[in-house]
Amino acid sequence: MSEGEPQSTANRLAQTRTDLAGDRTMMAADRTLMAWIRTALSMISFGFTIYKFLSYMRDSSTIHLHRPEGPRYLGLLLTGLGTVSLAAGILQYMQMLRQVGAVLRYRVAFYVAWVVVGLGFTILLGMATRRGPF
To answer: What is the model's pTM?
Structure first.
């Protein structure tokens, strides 16, 4: 055994730990983006559900609303809030990758987030352009 070998082993171990710390940071950023996706998808679907359910109830004369535009505005608010919050989550994810110095190779969660943003904007546009109180 030479004198330089323990130092070389320690350097390799330190480099391995540093590499693993970078991997853990990337995985944490992915988990955070997935949490944004879950939250946004919940808000978008809840807003759309309120909008459609109360529209159905009103059309079937099951309920009479004092403010017939209320469910539409609430649905628009929740859908818009979910979509915009996910867009903010995507920006936060991209900033984190740049800050860590990671190569901007996006993972599956990044692309899923963009699909959900597109879905949110499509639903928002459909709700906003529909005529009538609903």
So the answer is: 0.76
